[in-house]
Amino acid sequence: MSGNSPGAPGTGVVLGLVGNDIHVVANRVLEIGMAEHGFRPYNLGTNNTVDDFADAVLETGARAVLVASVNGEGQKSCAGFGARFAAAGLADVLRYVGGNLALGDRPAAEVTRLYTGFGFHRVFHRPASLHPVFEALRADLARSALEGIGPALVGRGGGGGAR
Fold first, then answer.
1. C-alpha to C-alpha distance for 118 and 113, rounded to whole angstroms
2. CB atoms < 10 A from the CB of 82, how many?
3. Which of 26, 73, 91, 130 has its CA at 20 to 30 Å from residue 100's CA atom?
4. pTM, whole model, 2 decimals?
5. pLDDT digits (tens, 9 = 90+) for 48-102
6. Phi–psi pair at 62, nearest 5 degrees
């Protein structure tokens, strides 16, 4: 797992591509953007399972995960994501998912409902840029530090028309 040193500034966030997705360039761009926006990324790279993300959070103490799927096939790999995190004692970890999350031209609202049903707090289906992801993550992390993560946060949409 690549990442900045444990003493690096910023909140730790685990990121990576889920399932059989090998879009390493997109993953690296996300990692660079996170570091530039003050986060401490722990990059798992490509071809990850839900357990890989949970294990990385346990290892690093990260407060959030950013799961990406660029090939449109993340649905199969992300089912049960929130339940797995809860079973591992990680229910309070913010869970974001983004990228090209579904094959074909499914409505963004449908994709958002699907992934929030899997236990993600925010869904960024085909975002136009990464800035809304970073802004939402910063705000949600600040809010969760004060209030804890609760049902009010789950189900909120994200960028790219997924509100």
1. 9
2. 22
3. 91
4. 0.85
5. 999 999 999 999 999 999 999 988 888 999 999 999 999 999 999 999 999 999 9
6. -60, 150
